[in-house]
Every structure is written in C-alpha cells, then in structure tokens.
Amino acid sequence: MAVGVHIDTHLHALRHYSATELLTAGVDLRTVAGRLGHGGGGATTLKVYAAWVAASDRKAAEVLGARMPKRNRRGMEKG
Questions:
Q1: Residue 11 to residue 43: CA distance in whole angstroms
Q2: Strand, helix or coil at 71?
C-alpha cells in the first residue's frame, strides 16, 4: 500500500501526525510515547505532538452525554 505523502512534508510533521492518529485510534499513551522515543510517561507526547481532533471531541461529548444522569421535568434524577 502506498502512502500519499506530499514531497514538501517534513519528517517532523509525520511524527505529529502519527502521534495524533495512534492516540485517536485508541493506542495507549505509553506505547505512542515509546514509539516516538519519549520518556516521562508521555507528557511530551501529549503537550507537543498530539493534536486536537474534532471527531474525537464529538465522540467524547457523546460518551459524557450518555453517562449523565437522566432528569425528569421536575429536575429530579430518574432512578
């Protein structure tokens, strides 16, 4: 399988891309940090390399919404 990479892409940009894609796909932080050669539990990986992804943010909102307690019209928790 060929990867379509523009000739003007910098290798460093590919590190950022791979970190974001791996984390978004659910690969654990320590594994992604290790692949990038980062120590310290992944702090550098999260601060510098991982980008915000809109689709992941929407999924996070859906998960939180589904876990919120349901309220009735009087504001009381259903249970």
A1: 21
A2: strand
Q: Dihedral (C-alpha) 17, 20, 23, 27: value to the nearest 10 degrees?
A: 0
Are residues 16 and 4 in contact, defined by beta-carbon separation less than 8 angstroms? no
Structure tokens at 66: 């589904």
Q: How far apart are CA 30 and CA 43, in angstroms?
A: 10
Burial of residue 22 (CB within 10 Å: 0-12, 13-18, 19+) is buried
How do residues 20-68 score in pLDDT, each as one tens digit? Answer: 999 999 999 999 999 999 988 899 998 998 888 998 899 999 999 999 9
Percent helix, percent strand, percent coil in the chain, to nearest 5: 60, 5, 40
Note if the pTM is more than 0.85: no
